[in-house]
Design a protein that fits this description.
The chain is an alpha+beta fold. The protein is built from eleven helices and nine strands.
Length: about 300
């Protein structure tokens, strides 16, 4: 991994660049066992670069599928459930390793997105959101300078330009902009001579306005089938978050993990106790090895969170 690490941009290899959270989880374990600081540094630099990049949805949260370039700027705009689950776990474990609140915050944002947009009324989690809407890739996510000016007041627009890579002529196709954070809030607050908390509050206000404006657009198509394997990963992510993050979210994350696990155990098993792979109105298709493996992972993490023996 060190031999293919991109020390300039974070991540591994060149374009296209995938999040590959399984590599980061491996490196965290390697660091923990050996004390190799380089392994932890690769994880932190990669997670920070992705969180600031266009691969992250700065308005509605969650990660797009991959970056088409080495700088994490232009994503393939599709959002996959398994990416949200594994990325949340990577940020949670890096928070546990370092104690840095920025990682806890990103994990919470990812889970907020999943619980808001990717959760069925029955409790299972949907599979994906498309990259395009109205036949145009990324249309839901990108902004012209004019749209930003219409949505924000003058001071807010000025602040957005300072913090994000926004151009009058766009940094993407057809004069549109992908929001891409220039620097960490800590550094930006220092340059602007305000507190980090004040800058965060101002950015939250801007984000809220952009989110409401964006909600009026045509949404990308949602793939609303529920898959046992990807749900197993999401249950694991929520359970780990409930254990590791702040008490305020413990109940919300625990309830969501329990509801999803109970849904799968009740609706996606045969009378003989064999798992089924997918649910969309009804369950079907015999489960594969990864359905069993990932659901077992989720149930073990859930047991370690709530200590209800049925999950064990």
């Amino acid at each position: 991994l060190n031999s293919i690490y991109d020390s300039q941009n974070g991540g591994f290899g060149t374009a296209p660049k995938f999040p590959a959270p399984h590599n980061l989880l491996f490196l965290l374990r390697h660091w923990h066992r050996t004390g190799d600081r380089n392994a932890l540094q690769m994880v932190e630099a990669t997670l920070q670069a992705m969180r600031m990049g266009g691969i992250y949805d700065h308005v509605g949260y969650g990660f797009h599928r991959y970056s088409t370039d080495a700088q994490w700027l232009v994503p393939h705009f599709e959002k996959m459930l398994y990416d949200q689950a594994l990325m949340a776990i990577a940020y949670i474990e890096t928070y546990q390793a370092t104690g840095k609140e920025e990682y806890a915050k990103t994990a919470s944002e990812i889970l907020d997105y999943v619980l808001r947009d990717m959760t069925s009324p029955q409790g299972g989690f949907f599979s994906a959101e498309d990259a395009d809407s109205e036949g145009d890739e990324g249309k839901f996510y990108v902004w012209t300078a004019e749209e930003l000016k219409e949505t924000l007041d003058k001071e807010e627009f000025k602040l957005l330009i300072r913090l994000f890579d926004v151009h009058e002529n766009g940094n993407f196709e057809k004069g549109r902009n992908i929001l891409h954070q220039r620097s960490a809030l800590e550094g930006a607050a220092s340059v602007l001579n305000i507190s980090e908390q004040d800058l965060y509050d101002r950015m939250e206000k801007i984000r809220g306005k952009l989110f409401l404006a964006r909600e009026k657009r045509v949404h990308p198509f949602k793939d609303d089938k529920i898959l046992t394997d990807w749900n197993g990963l999401m249950i694991a992510a929520l359970a780990k978050a409930a254990q590791a993050l702040h008490d305020a979210k413990y109940e919300e994350y625990t309830k969501a993990a329990i509801k999803a696990a109970d849904f799968i155990l009740e609706e996606m098993q045969t009378t003989e106790g064999r798992l089924l792979h997918r649910y969309r109105g009804e369950a079907g298709i015999s489960a594969n090895l990864d359905d069993y493996a990932f659901l077992v992972l989720g149930l073990l993490d859930l047991y370690e969170t709530v200590f209800d023996i049925k999950y064990l």
